[in-house]
């Protein structure tokens, strides 16, 4: 690593350390697609703290999404070592990244941050990642239309190319994403939801799971969001999905450190061509 790179990493770690101090937590930064190898990087970073880990971890996350199974392994690793986990979204966490965010006890965003629809990506034979729901929607649309009219030659060829085994895999990925959100939201984010806000009724475990499943299905609804890359901002998450989101702009010091860290790392990754950056700073090491 060059002297310049060491200098940049040193500065980024100072910002990461400050975020951890402000939130009284170990601080982990993940700027990466959710792909194979990332889970091992996260595991290595967390275990590098040995016995000096805090009870709480804050993850600064920036990702366009990826593979759900990778997210599941990362979350399971974090939950093995930490009693609490918060996620900060400086800019975006799409698809599988949104699932990651919904596994947190608290989610921090600001007016500029956005999450995305839950459209799980699957690895194709050539290594490409493809959004599963797009294929399912296309198949269902063409199948329905073929009942009422004769498909064009192009549509018929497209329908024939959609492999039933792949479609089953896509459907399983969709169901898996809903199940993870239902489990994680009810277990972590909703654990302190004791009474309903208006009627002050007692919130049962069944109600937590039902509410989590409703949110998962809304985020999984491609007809509502229209596009895999559609951004869902903090206002929509709070007002339409009724999910509690912390606005990190209400804390000037925290907001400043998040922005400085984000700008530095994205500039560094852009100039070096890196597509994965993972690093951790321990709160107890101070």
UniProtKB/TrEMBL annotation:
Gene3D superfamilies: 2-enoyl-CoA Hydratase, Chain A, domain 1
Source species, domain of life: Bacteria
InterPro entries: ClpP/crotonase-like_dom_sf, Pept_S49_ser-pept_pro
CC terms in the record's Gene Ontology section: membrane
Protein name as annotated: Serine dehydrogenase proteinase
Source organism: Candidatus Kentrum eta
Lineage summary: Bacteria, Pseudomonadati, Pseudomonadota, Gammaproteobacteria, Candidatus Kentrum
